Amino acid sequence: MSISIAIVEDEKNYNNALKKVIDYQTDMKVIAQFFDGNAALKNLSDLSPDVVMMDIQLQDMLGIDIIGKLKKEMSATQFIMCTSFENDEMIFNSLKAGAMGYLIKGESMDKILSSIRDVYDGGAPMSFSIARRVLTHFEKKTIEVKDFEELTKRETEIVELLSQGLLYKEIADKIFVSIDTVKKHVGNIYRKLQVNNKVEAINKFNHFKN
After folding, report:
1. Binning pLDDT at 50, 70 and 90, where does residue 107 land?
2. 35-66 burial, b if ≥16 CB within 10 A, otherwise e?
3. Spatial distance between the Cα atoms of 131 and 52, rounded to a whole number of angstroms
4. CA 93 to CA 62: how far, in whole Å?
5. Is there a contact between 181 and 138 (Cβ–Cβ < 8 Å)?
6. Which of 38, 87, 91, 190 has the greatest CB tally within 10 Å of its CB?
7. pLDDT tens digit sequence for 19-61
């Protein structure tokens, strides 16, 4: 059975080049081309293609927003971002919105075709540089979680109080210990969180909480 594909791309030459190469394959066919976001937003859900090749930065809107609006009613459709943007915010906003693939323009047509087949079969194809960024992001998250798991209940309480702006003496009074004990706890917190000062510890704590 042929994989049905829609292309949402305002760069006409690239849009047409994709269509030409895809239509040359025996197992896939382009059923629609859109050159702006509004047209895609109005018509995509009626077409229900198997795969949508989506540009991120269209002239009239973001491709991420289109996916966000359509993903619920197009649950069977897989979206692949095909873009020149490699910044973390764009990558993670795309994945949060529901994109299952993220390719950088400039990838070979072979890579694009294999990615369409891959996403259709349940995969999550990404350009190598994007996959590295995603893995690095989750490695950092894992390290942070591990760091916080090492904190004792008392140390976690002290970081919380530091983040509220309390001084060492105020913390000591609040939890009924000496200032020296608070300082000792703070030293342990810095070591476990791999930070060098109070500001870094608070920032890491707030980032983890969020």
Report:
1. confident
2. bebeebbeebeeeebbbbbbbbebeeebbbeb
3. 20
4. 11
5. no
6. 91
7. 999 999 999 999 999 999 999 999 999 999 999 999 988 999 9
